[in-house]
Design a protein that fits this description.
Elements: H1 3-22, H2 53-64, H3 86-98, H4 109-125, E1 133-137, H5 140-155, H6 160-163, E2 171-176, H7 181-189, E3 197-200, E4 202-203, E5 208-209, H8 211-223, E6 227-234, H9 246-255, E7 259-263, E8 288-291, H10 293-296, E9 304-308, H11 311-318, H12 349-383, E10 388-395, E11 398-403, H13 409-423, E12 429-433, E13 436-442, H14 450-476
Length: about 475
């Protein structure tokens, strides 16, 4: 592709992106295609000769686009958001055009130095003390895996990478039963093993880890010859927004010499608002913390902020320095590839820089506060409806509910969430609370308005009423 053609298609792609974003409210949120429908339209063999860009772009619009779920849709209320504020998208255009591999300071000094400064902006924004240093990971999963590897190495006196695990007593990691499944994967990948992840029952109104049970488990394991290594606490758990008592978790863990990692992948963004910080009181004493600006803050995926009290422990765990990766004559520089599992690193700091400068903390605080208020109001409206019950009250902007109906409540609510998503106007997901199905709602999409929350109420109640009417007709027949 020559420079002229590259320029023309770059402009067309940018114009397409702008038009696409403006059209989202007119599209169904979730892809409406059947399994295999997209693959059936794509040849099974690769092309032998090059094709015209116009034909490729037309196939993108006609084949690919119908099979996309629109994560930037303002009525995407499923999972957690993967926001991409428009200013973040513009920054990513620039990153993509430069295509830098920013693994070392010398491979792009600006990328390293901007990351250091912008992560410190974020640290200040969420109220972490000066003792923390930050690095951008691709996702909270990678940050948590890194933390588990540090737990492993500290507990094994830094001999795990060299000797492996077989010559040591089994390690034990502790978490509540509300943590994300990325913790399970970190335990698998680290070699510690699923059977050595000790799940502590969550209790109370915030579904917090039972810290008396945590301490008892640590003492019991140590007496059995096992090796407690660390605790993973959560703020804003994925299922219903569970929040551990971080201060008490840290007290118990540090009493026994265990490392504490706090997974606040979703809810950490809300901590730019001072009024939410009581939900993670004690985080300033944790050993590491992760949250994803790409979830609720507006930075395009992927962008995960990992804060570490002692980065030397992380570097000692992960750094490998062959001669070809050394930067001679530059003492004291940071090479962030030594802070992460992948060697290769994208220039993720640029979109954070654009985002924070364009919106400012005040603009981002307003967005988050609106989402929390709109979710609370929707919860109150559904709770006042005769045919709905609120299962878990709003935590930040997440709550869960059930519709009363059917002889099998679980099957009925699964059918309801499927019918809501097939309607296309909103997108929700389900979870389980105390063993029974509940429907999740979370407000967090960057361009959401209060009207979108009202549409959610209308869709939920209309689809539920239609299902109830159809059920009555079937019973009569």
């Amino acid at each position: 592709m020559d420079e002229k053609t590259f320029g023309e298609w770059s402009q067309k792609a940018a114009e397409w992106g702008s038009t696409y974003r403006a059209s989202l409210r007119d599209r169904p949120v979730r892809a409406q295609t059947a399994p295999g429908a997209i693959a059936a339209q794509i040849p099974s063999r690769p092309p032998q000769t090059g094709e015209d860009m116009q034909a490729i772009f037309e196939d993108f619009e006609n084949i690919i686009l119908p099979g996309m779920t629109h994560w930037q849709h303002p009525r995407f209320f499923a999972y957690f958001p993967a926001n991409a504020a428009p200013v973040s998208v513009i920054a990513e255009y620039l990153v993509t055009a430069m295509a830098a591999q920013c693994m070392l300071w010398q491979t792009s000094p600006a990328a390293t130095e901007l990351e250091t400064r912008v992560l410190d902006w974020l640290r200040q924004a969420i109220g972490l003390p000066d003792g923390f240093s930050g690095v951008i990971q691709d996702s909270a999963s990678s940050a948590t895996l890194s933390a588990v590897l540090v737990m492993r190495e500290r507990a094994l006196n830094w001999k795990g990478n060299k000797q492996g695990l077989s010559v040591h007593a089994p390690l034990r990691i502790y978490s509540s039963d509300q943590v994300h499944t990325s913790i399970d994967r970190a335990i698998w990948v680290s070699g510690i093993g699923e059977e050595n992840l000790v799940r502590i029952l969550a209790t109370g109104p915030l579904q917090s880890m039972d810290c008396e049970a945590l301490e008892a488990a640590i003492l019991r394991d140590r007496a059995a010859g096992l090796l407690p290594a660390g605790v993973i606490a959560c703020t804003g758990g994925t299922s219903t927004g569970a929040c551990d008592d971080i201060a008490e978790v840290v007290r118990v863990a540090h009493k026994h010499g265990l490392y504490v990692h706090v997974d606040a992948a979703w809810a950490g963004s809300a901590m730019i608002c001072e009024e939410f910080r009581p939900l993670w009181t004690g985080v300033d004493e944790a050993d590491s913390v992760v949250f994803n600006p790409h979830k609720w803050l507006g930075a395009q995926f992927d962008c995960s902020a990992h804060f570490i009290r002692n980065p030397d422990d992380l570097v000692r765990t992960l750094a490998i320095q062959p001669e070809y990766l050394k930067t001679h004559g530059r003492d004291g520089i940071i090479n962030y590839s030594e802070w992460t599992i992948p060697l290769g690193r994208r220039f993720r700091a640029l979109k954070l820089w654009f985002l924070l400068r364009f919106h400012g903390l005040d603009g981002l605080k307003t967005m988050i506060r609106n989402h929390v208020a709109w979710a609370k109001h929707l919860s109150e409206r559904l709770g006042a409806h005769d045919n709905f019950e609120i299962v878990t009250a709003p935590r930040f902007s997440l709550f869960s509910f059930r519709h009363r109906g059917g002889t099998d409540s679980d099957a009925h609510n699964i059918a309801l969430v499927n019918a809501i998503n097939d309607d296309g106007r909103i997108y929700l997901t389900q979870t389980r609370v105390d063993g029974h199905v509940a429907i999740r709602f979370q407000a967090g999409q960057f361009d959401m308005t209060e009207d979108d929350a009202d549409v959610a109420y209308d869709v939920i109640t209309e689809v539920a009423a239609k299902m109830a009417l159809e059920t009555r007709h079937q019973e009569i027949q």
